[in-house]
Amino acid sequence: MSATTAESQDRWAEATQLQLTWWRFRRHRLAVVSLVVVVLFYLVAAFADFLAINDPHATDARRSFIPPQAIHLFDEDGFNPHVYGLRGVRNMQTFQLTYTPDPNRKLPVRLFTRGYTYNLLGLFETDIHLLGVVGGQRTDGIFLLGTDQLGRDLLSRIIVATRVSLSIGLAGVTLSLLLGVILGGISGLYGGWVDTFIQRVIEVLRSIPTIPLWMGLAAALPNTWSTTQVYFAITVIISLIGWTDLARVVRGRFLSLREEDFVVAAELAGATQGRVIFRHMLPSFASHIIAAVSLALPAMIVSETALSFLGLGLRPPAISWGILLQDAQNIQVLANAPWLLSAAVPVIVVILAFNFLGDGLRDAADPYG
Amino acid sequence: MNVLEVDDLKKHYPIHAGMLRREVGRVRAVDGVSFSIAAGETLALVGESGCGKTTVSRCILRALSPTSGAIRFDAGDGTVDLARLSKRAMRPLRRHLQMIFQDPYSSLNPRMMVGDIIAEPLKVNGVPAAERSARVLELLDLVQMPAVARTRFPHAFSGGQRQRIGIARALALNPRLVVADEPVSALDVSVQAQIINLLLDLQDRLKLSMLFVAHDLSVVRHVSDRVAVMYVGRIVEIAPTDALYRNPRHPYTETLLAAVPAPDPLRRGRQMKATGEVADPARPPPGCAFHPRCPYAQDRCRTERPELTEVAPGRWTSCHRAREIELAGVA
Amino acid sequence: MAERTSLAVRDLAVHFAMEQGTVRALEGVSFDLHAGRTLGIVGESGCGKSVTARSILRILDRPGKIVGGSILLDPGTAEETDLIAIDPDSSRMRGIRGGRIGLIFQEPMTALSVHYTVGNQIIEAVRQPADLSKAAARDRAIELLREVGIPRPELRVDAYPFQLSGGLRQRVGIAMALAGNPDIVIADEPTTALDVTTQAQVLDLLRRLQQEKNIALMLITHDMGVIAEMCDEVAVMYLGRVVEYAPVLELFTAPRHPYTRALLRAVPSILATPRQRLATIGGAVPHPGARPQGCAFHPRCTDFMPGRCDAAAPPPLTAGCTGASCFLEVPA
Questions:
Q1: Rounded to whole angstroms, what are the CA distances from B142 to A362, B118, B145, B193, C15?
Q2: Which residues contact A201 (CB under 8 A, 6 or more apart)?
Q3: Sheet of C5-18: strands edge to edge?
């Protein structure tokens, strides 16, 4: 270390492991950017309805397959954001509906307009949205990413889907975490036949091919279950395999920590086993757990997306990225309306962000590991 | 008055092999060790790898359970056999037995402040908070560390300083016996000297009873009152320090002393008469374990295992020929 | 008594580019290695002794970089080569490594691969500089094992390192270092990880081999006893510089540099009286990145002269000249 001031030396000497980890983390620019991205995504999830423009559930056959629209910022009067009203014309020979913007109908686009009603953060009802169209007919709106077959605005659906896709990941990871820490801890702490038993269970679970397992379990879910029930069932299903990774990490750390001199010192001082575990051992691998969790989350998100994409996970009218991508399965549809694939973009971005974040956390927590 | 009396201590590890994991042999890590430590005395336990000295220290502290034998400890209000106690029964006695570890980098919890590390034995044994902080300050002063160290974390300190913290922690409860497991072998020469001096000061001031486990015979000469030499799980010689170094009574001790290079170029070239490698504790030679390497071995040594006997007042050795042979020591 | 100078290190400087700044690991180190003689390099952690060994063999890892000086193989002859000028990855340097300069590591377990038998590894070391058939190489390997005192070498040649004791493994390490018939051997703390009786045997072996093959031996250690036992000349290093150089007897009986004097007083001795306290050196070795101004030792020096010792660094030692790099040696 180059000669540092006495003050910064003091700060470093008194820094907890957490602070040191944070300082190391801050130096990885990519990881910090990824952290910002992840936080933004979760903010979008929290304020999804506010950010959405059109009611994600409202169908209208007259708005089917509208291609993405642009917002025009300027016109003869200066800064006046607006969209053009659309006129649908059906080609009588191909029966294809094409939309052409009607320059005579200009619909102003403004901030904080009234739109469909929703519940903000579960606290109160409102109908204010960030962006919206003032006036206009029911078929009008801002379709920045176009609409799907049933006339629903894709961008709004993607935004609202964020909530479901990201929260299912969190729920799944929490469940995995609980199972993983408890079972991994017991395994590592007690050893012996308990350890052997748990490890064999883990191996059996991991040897089952995931997709067929999920298919089987998902198929077993009764049709009559409500969306919420299905949601939780899917969470449990994807955590079923996920906890094994965490359990192994936790077990490994416990095994190595048991032999550490400072743990032995605590035992020799007369500490009870509980104190040794919670005061001395647990803090030592908290950072590993956090890193493992942040790498497990993207796996959960992809799992849900994949399941729903295959039709095995959440079902409409629930909205998740996987469900949105289901619409893009048909090649004919895709050829006519390629904008339906844009639901894949947030999936890719958030997975990458979580991975970089997790890598950064892992490097910061254990630079020598 | 003896603080500790170890009587025929044994620690065997079974070797399992085969599909059914049957026991095919035993590693006799400690095979019948007996010694005592008087109050205020420092006994050094020396030996090379595999001799069992670390295992003995771990058995005494009950970090391991002995296979057989007695560990009679004077806890102040009577003698108790530590070997017979359950882990639970051991806990209230732990305050009387503390350990100084070898590796200063792994013996302190990196996530605890130094003050908390030193206070941990006090906290766990029910010492109230105000008394704890006073005692922590007292201990830091005792090991010549600044008071500001309390709010700092181990990563801010060098190896020597960490070792001082470890010593402070070991002394927190005024233990009746301190087991020091190679406390200076991981340190630089100049730092080692500081810690050796500190230990000598503490021995004087606190009248510590200490079991000093080490492999470095030079350090041991400075620090201990009596020395016990171990080879392959058994003690081969016990004697007061000066007597042992000047006039060893066991060929292995003579070998060890001859092997240590002294920092004096005029003494180079003294030959070590023993040959071969340290024996394997899983397959010790029959009879006297040292006989394959011993330049004085006779037929009896190959078949009959010698017992530790007192050949002179305070001088114990386990060699059949102890009274016949002249062995060379260092000055 | 003109011994051939096998290796001449002149003003070697090595820097490490770390995040917090440049660490000057070596600053102008000069010494000679002579055939048939042992040079001891002694110092505590951070003094740069291992960096010196790795630099000579050009196996210094990034972020370390040689930034100055020269390492001359066969100095003063027609074949004089500056090792710094050669590409460390070239076949020429690889030929020198093993063929002219051998290295004995501290940890025999890390120097030997766990996946191959001992014989395999020696055979590889033997075949690399020379062109031998497999059978001839195996014979040579067995012979090498015999030379280093391994009993029943024809059986041991097929053993894996984990099947051997620490002492035997280190002997194998020595055999590997000698496989290419080097005339210079660098031993980096070769006995630190060994038991004391094994250490005595390994040191005896080294001494015998050196005499038989007239090898120039550079012995790196922190143990003053080993220095006294093995070395002809000694260079004491502190924070990247040679602070004193002397023949071994002179170093122990009449040390010149305050650090050497303090170090000798701080070493525990098997000849001590019981409870003898050691004279300690105040403070601790500073981090190489936080080097004190002027003479690096001055904050801990009992003979510190304000105004001189903290103003400029004392003049470095010329190779082969007995003396100390200290202002006490320099007339005011």
A1: 40, 12, 8, 17, 40
A2: none
A3: C21-34, C5-18, C64-73, C81-82
Q: Do B193 and C280 touch (CB under 8 A)?
A: yes
Report the candidate in A188, A218, A183 with the shortest Cα–Cα distance to residue A201. Answer: A183
Distance CA B9, CA B27 (A): 14
pLDDT the model gives residue C319: 85
Contacts of B153 in chain A (CB under 8 A): 13-17
Would you kindly state where each structural domain of chain B is located, as residue ranges?
2-105+173-224
Query: Residue C69: which H helix or E strand, with range?
Result: strand C64-73
pTM: 0.82
Predicted complex ipTM: 0.85
Helix axes A282-309, A227-258, angle to 10 degrees: 150
- The single residue listed with the structure tokens 């799944």 is A172
Side-chain half-sphere exposure of B269, counting CA atoms within 13 A? 3
Q: How far apart are CA C320 and CA C332, in angstroms?
A: 24
Report which DSSP code applies to C190.
Answer: T
- A–C: how many Cβ contacts below 8 A? 11
Bridge partners, residue B99, by sequence:
B179
**Which positions 60-99 of A are in contact with B (Cβ < 8 Å)?**
none
pLDDT in tens, C43-76: 988 888 989 999 999 988 888 899 999 999 998 8
Chain B 302-331, CB below 8 Å of chain C: which residues? Answer: 330-331
Cβ–Cβ below 8 Å for C284 and B160: yes
Q: Which residue has the tokens 């029911």?
A: A138
d(CA A261, CA B154): 14
Angle, CA B188 vertex, CA A3 and CA A269 arms, to 5°: 95
DSSP code of residue C61: P
Instruction: Identify the CATH assignment for B2-105+173-224 out of 3.40.50.300, 3.90.1150.10, 2.60.120.460, 3.65.10.10.
Output: 3.40.50.300
Mutation for B interface: A261, A276, A288, most B CBs within 10 A: A261
Contact status of A6 with chain B (Cβ, < 8 Å): no
Average pLDDT by stretches of 10, chain B with 331 residues? 92 82 83 93 91 92 91 88 88 91 91 92 91 94 91 89 94 93 88 91 90 92 94 94 93 91 81 76 86 89 90 92 87 71
- Check if the beta carbon of residue A340 is closer than 8 Å to that of residue A327: yes
| DSSP track, A227-256 | HHHHHHHHHHHHHHHHHHHHHHHHHHHHHH
Other Cβ atoms less than 10 A from the Cβ of A5: the count is 8
**How far out from the chain centre does Cα B65 lie?**
17
Within an 8 Å CB–CB cutoff, is residue B130 touching chain C? no
Question: From the list B103, B110, B120, which residue is nearest A17 (CB)?
Answer: B110
CATH numbers and ranges of domains, chain C: 5-100+182-269+277-329 (3.40.50.300), 101-181 (no CATH)
Size of interface B-C (CB pairs under 8 A): 144
Cα(C284)–Cα(A10) distance, rounded to whole angstroms? 18
| pLDDT tops 60 at residue A349 | yes
Which chains would you list as touching B if contact means 3+ CB atom pairs under 8 Å? Answer: A, C
In terms of Cα–Cα distance, which of B88, B67, B33 is closest to B213? B33
Distances (CA, A) of C232 to A92, A213, B138, B316, C227: 105, 74, 49, 41, 9
Q: Which residues pair with B36 in a beta bridge?
A: B5
Q: With an 8 Å Cβ cutoff, is C287 touching chain A? A: yes
Neighbours of A335 (CB within 10 A): 8
Instruction: Please tell me the distance from the alpha carbon of residue C70 to that of residue C83, in angstroms, as a whole number.
Output: 7
**CB-based burial, A51-75: b 16+ in 10 Å, e otherwise:** bbbbbbeeeeeebbbbeebeeeeee
